[in-house]
Structure formats: structure tokens, C-alpha cells
Amino acid sequence: MAKNEFDIINHYFAHQQQQRDDVVLAIGDDCALVDVPANYHVAISTDSLVAGTHFLVDADPAFVAYKALASNISDLAAMGATPAWVSLALTLPTIDEAWLAPFCHSFFELANRYNIQLIGGDTTKGPLSITLTVQGLVPRGQALTRSGAQVGDDVYVTGNLGDSAAGLALILNQSQCDQRLTKVLVERHFKAHPRVNVGEALRGIASAALDISDGVIADVKHIGERSQVAIEVDVEKLPLSAELLAFCDGDCQQAQQLALTSGEEYELCFTASKANRDALKMALAHTNVKYSCIGQVIAGRGLLLLQLGKPVSWKLSGWDHFVVTNK
Ligand code: ADP
Ligand code: MG
């Protein structure tokens, strides 16, 4: 029976995984030590999840672990980095083993799937929160940043968009549909797969990339801002799943609206030059992940939504106006 902080660390976090070859020293000392191969950068990202803000206090701990780690791994994927190491700062109100056991099971299952090793962290008492710092490796000069999009590039997304928002609406009882559909969409919300293999394949091909965490229209604007360009998105080209269309009773416009604003998709949005179309097709063929061109990079600033080839201004929750100033 775990009793104090050290018991928790020993029982739940230390020695839970096979040691990676590049880990010299993991949990147990003042710092972890890792080897970084020559000609690689370490890509580093931190995210916090706070109970009551990012998840419900009584949320399934297995889901909380999955969400915390998956969202961090997705940031590595968006950078074209290969996951390597993670540290976990965990604040718990009490030593609750009924919470810790499923949390750790889910955490290590996902960590092992992506070959990412827990190398350290901190365990404290207080309101429930989880902070992860993930680190990955990317060959020097090949990281996918947000700032490289060029006028004329195509804009792509992986997978389908909107399913996560539909799943969330079902979880929150804001919508209802049949059992089979509910199961599929709820699963899409809870178990999005970070696109690590796509990120790796896009090295040297994509001009800019990010992962979709706040909804594609909110996120794609970051590429526009950092690259000093405008982005045109053709709403008819948004990839919609059959399940999302069924959820919307075939109402395409409602499905497109969900696709534009659905957060926590963990799909990648990226730009690539037209000259790289064949290279892109070849590079992504082996990933078994579908990708769709949804628009292009144009001169100016901001975001332009097109419907049937004409600019539209949609009132979307949280997004009142879309202005593009073509310079
Ligand atoms: P320090 O007092 O040096 O900060 P701690 O007592 O906090 O050390 O932690 C002891 C060891 O356990 C360290 O190696 C630390 O990285 C690790 N550790 C603490 N909490 C966690 C956790 N939640 N997950 C993984 N490693 C942890
Ligand atoms: Mg500490």
C-alpha cells in the first residue's frame, strides 16, 4: 500500500517501462540524463491539465492520462519530432490509489506505443493537476515550424475533422444519436491518435505545420501569422467522416461548421508547395493516414473562407469575423 510521495514514485512511476538506449539515468536521481545524437535537435513542449478547467474533477483517470500525454505527443508530431522522453509533474489532493492505478496503466500504455520513456517528474499535494514536458528528436534543420508557409502553397489536413466535437456534444448530452454512432464518435473524442508518423514523413516536404487543438480555423491562423501570409480554406474540401454526416442528419453545413471549430482533433494541418505534391503522396503513402487539401496560402493577412468559390463570413462560436486584406 503506497503511503507517501516516495512510495508513490517507486510503486507507480519508477521501473514501469523498458529503458531506452539513450537514457543514461532515469527516475531516482536529482536529474535524468539522456544522450542526444549528433545532428539532432531536441524538441521540447509542456502542457498542463488542471481539474475543473481542462477535465472534470471526477473524469476517468485513464482518459485524463491519455489526454495529457496524447496532446503533448501531438505537439511533437506537429514539429516533425520523434518522441523520446517525458517528465510528469503530478499534483494530487490525496494519495488515491483507485485514481493512480488506472491513470498509470493508461499513461504507460500510450507511452510504450510511442516509445516515449518517463524519465522524471515531481509529485506534490494540492488541487489535481498534471503537467507534462515531452521531448523528442528531429534532425537538425528539419523541424516543421509554423513560419515557413509561402504564397501558392497548398494547405492540408490529416484524417477527418469534426468528429471530436460531435463526440464531446454526445458526452455532454447536448446531442443524441443511435448507440453505434455514439460509440464511434465518443471514442474519436477520447482516443485521438497523435500523427507522429505523418510528422516524421513531412520532414523536408511541408513548409509549415501545427496540430489542431483549438479548431482548424483558429489554428491555421497561427500559420498565417507566423508566416506573414493569409490562408484560404474551401469549406467544401473539409474532410468529413460518414459518422459526422450521420450525426448531423446529412446537414452538410452543420458538419462543416463542426469541422471548422472542433478542437482536440490532434490531426495535423500543414502547408506544402505544389512542386512537392508527388513527394508528399509518396512520403505519406506508407503512413496509412489520409490527407486532404483544404485550401491554399495567399498573399495578405488573416483567413478567408470560401464556399462554392465565393468568400463567406460565417458566424461561428467564438469567431465573429474573418477579414482578409490582400496587399
Ligand atoms: P527532488 O527532491 O530532487 O526534486 P523528488 O523527491 O521530487 O526529487 O523526486 C525523486 C525522483 O523521482 C526524481 O528523480 C524525480 O524526477 C522522480 N519523480 C518524482 N515524481 C515523479 C513522477 N510523478 N513521475 C516520474 N518521476 C517522478
Ligand atoms: Mg521534486
Task: Give structural notes.
The structure is a single chain. This protein starts with a helix and ends with a strand. It folds into 2 domains: 135 residues, 2-Layer Sandwich (60s Ribosomal Protein L30, Chain: A), CATH 3.30.1330.10; 158 residues, PurM-like C-terminal domain (Phosphoribosyl-aminoimidazole Synthetase, Chain A, domain 2, Alpha-Beta Complex), CATH 3.90.650. The chain is an alpha+beta fold. It is built from 10 helices and 14 strands. The C terminus is likely disordered. Strands 7, 8, 9, 10, 11, 12, 13 and 14 form an 8-stranded mixed sheet that branches. The structure holds adenosine-5'-diphosphate (ADP) and magnesium ion. Adenosine-5'-diphosphate (ADP) binds next to helix 1, strand 4 and strand 5.
How is the topology of this model organized?
Blueprint: H1 5-13, E1 23-25, E2 33-34, E3 40-50, H2 61-78, E4 82-92, H3 97-113, E5 117-125, E6 129-139, E7 154-158, H4 163-171, H5 179-190, H6 196-201, E8 206-211, H7 216-227, E9 230-234, H8 242-247, H9 252-261, E10 268-272, H10 277-285, E11 291-298, E12 301-307, E13 310-312, E14 324-325
Parallel strand pairs: 4-5, 9-12
Antiparallel strand pairs: 1-2, 3-6, 4-6, 7-10, 7-11, 8-10, 9-11, 12-13, 12-14
Helix pairs in contact: 2-3, 4-5
The site of adenosine-5'-diphosphate has 13 residues, from helix 1, strand 4 and strand 5.
